[in-house]
Amino acid sequence: MFIERVSQVFAQHSGLSVQKIAIQGKLDNEHADHINRWLSFVSATKTKDLTFDFKSRYPREGPYDFPFKFFGAMDSSYLLSMRLSAVSLNPPVDFKA
């Protein structure tokens, strides 16, 4: 239900940009398809401040693997702040932040 609600809120957004998105919940890599769609929304709305706080005590499929490909495929210069919790970070060797 939580995932559907977040997706509904994003689908109803009609503005051009978003200042801040903060999502807190017990999410893991099992939910990657949904989270990746949310990252596409972050990109499309040029969100400036992003927080993903996925406190999952017993993840079924491990922590969410943050897809660094999103930074290669989009202009992330607008993203000023990003806070991640309970997220797996495995940047490619050639990643430059």
Classify the beta-strand content into a percent band.
15-25%
Number of helices: 3
> Tell me about the biggest sheet?
3 strands, parallel
- Helix/strand-derived category reads alpha/beta
Looking at the chains present, what oligomeric state does this protein adopt?
single chain
Rg, Cα atoms, Å: 13 Å
Question: Ranges with pLDDT <50 over ≥5 residues?
Answer: none
Major β-sheet strand ordering = 1-2-4
Shape annotation: globular
| String of helices and strands | HEHEEHEE
What is the helix fraction of residues, given as a range? 25-40%
Question: For the residues shown, what is the average pLDDT?
Answer: 86
Q: Kindly state the number of beta strands.
A: 5
The end-to-end distance, rounded to whole angstroms, is 34 Å
